[in-house]
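Page 47, continued from p. 46.
Same chain as before, 154 aa.
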Amino acid sequence: MSDDAIDRTPDPEMGRPQWYSGPEPPPPEGKPFTPEPVLVTVGDIGCTATRVLTPSGQRPLAGTVWIVTNQTTVDRRIPSYAIVLAVLLMIFCLLGLVFLAVKEEKIQGFVQVSVQGSDFYYATQVKITDRAQVFDTEQRVNYIRGLVAALPAA
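Result:
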């Protein structure tokens, strides 16, 4: 640990620094520190009612712009069990050809979520394996956009 990390005093709004060990220090006089609860997370981005929490630090939520980019691919194919059943049942009757109409979808890729403020930019990728995850990620970002709209402009 460097000497300058030990000499720094913690900012009450940033929470307790990681380099301190031991019991929690008492709150400063006059203004007790109460951390806000995290309301929603998207990938490794978390949001409280007034702040954006990223691995690179905390920033104010007011005035941020949120962008969602869907970068998934959908692969539709006939599953192998349907081909086997079609071949086996085609020998007995032509009903086996109905199994060739069975399709299987495989979704893969990610959704990129980026947040941009007046003095920062951060992006994260959320791995996607089904359609519900795409919808869930978009709804989480829409909830955050609603939080931003409810705050006074910075």
